[in-house]
Amino acid sequence: MVNDGNIPVLAHAIRLMTAIAEDRALRNASELGRSLGIAQATNYRIIRTLENADWLARRAEGGYEISTGLLRLTESAEPARKLLAVAEDEMTRLSNASALTTKLSIRNGDYAVTALRRDPPEVMAVGGTLGGQFHLCYGSSGAMFAADFRQDQLARLIESAPAQVWTYQSREDFLARVDQVRQTASCVDHGSYHPNIHSISAPIRNDTGRILAVLSVLALPHDLPAHRIAELRRQVVQSAQACEGKLHAPQSAPLPAAQPTEGKP
């Protein structure tokens, strides 16, 4: 049955997947259904279907998270498959060199989604969830994508942002990061999402200049003293440019399929 151009059960599934990607409380199935206004029987069948498809996975500590099975869909598209494949080794190298977690973000509407992540050998590193989704007004990766927006698009993005986006930052802070990207082609963020999560990002562009993805390092505040920022920024930009070089290089043999793995929760 179609309602206003939408298939209700599919719309429910999309809302549920989005809520799980965004939610940090790791709620159980019943809580998710109630919060979204989805009938419990419908909610249960949706979750079971998504689990069976390996699009959702139960977490040991409770609740659900986006599963790696969903990424297989992106690998069927050549640009996405190639992007994941060329980024994997470079992200591992950058994580080992910087002793920081790295992540590759792609854009989904007004949100940046973590498509790939690599963690350093060190235990005390910023963690996160594969498939995690963050509004573009957050962080260095969001500013990177938003820097390609027109002014009217930026204004709409700011006005439509959820209220919690402005908990640790102002609209002026966000616009300053966008301006930073436009001036330096990189971005440093000091805790706009959470005071203990800082980041540095650089873009990965296709041969027409469009941003395909954003490469970032995630850091605790003490990992980014003022004297270290310039060198880390250089490393991130260099790694992003290395990914671009591999993407644009002539391909004589098929690239191996990327094998995304989850980072620490």
Main sheet?
6 strands, antiparallel
The beta-strand count equals 8
Poorly predicted ranges (pLDDT <50, ≥5 residues)? Answer: 260-265
Distance between the termini: 38 Å
Provide the descriptors you would attach to this structure in a database record.
globular; 8 strands; 9 helices; 265 residues; six-stranded antiparallel β-sheet; alpha+beta; disordered C terminus; single chain
Secondary-structure map with pairings?
Blueprint: H1 8-22, H2 29-36, H3 40-52, E1 56-58, E2 64-66, H4 71-75, H5 78-98, E3 101-108, E4 111-118, E5 133-135, H6 139-146, H7 151-160, H8 171-184, E6 187-194, E7 197-205, E8 211-219, H9 226-248
Antiparallel strand pairs: 1-2, 3-4, 3-8, 4-5, 6-7, 7-8
Helix pairs in contact: 1-3, 2-3, 5-9, 6-8
Structure characterization notes:
This protein has 265 residues and is of the alpha+beta class. The chain has a six-stranded antiparallel sheet. Helix 2 crosses helix 3 and helix 6 crosses helix 8. The longest helix has 23 residues. It is globular, with a radius of gyration of 19 Å. The C terminus is likely disordered.
Summarize the entry for a quick read.
With 265 residues, the protein is an alpha+beta fold. It has helices spanning 8-22, 29-36, 40-52, 71-75, 78-98, 139-146, 151-160, 171-184, 226-248; strands at 56-58, 64-66, 101-108, 111-118, 133-135, 187-194, 197-205, 211-219.
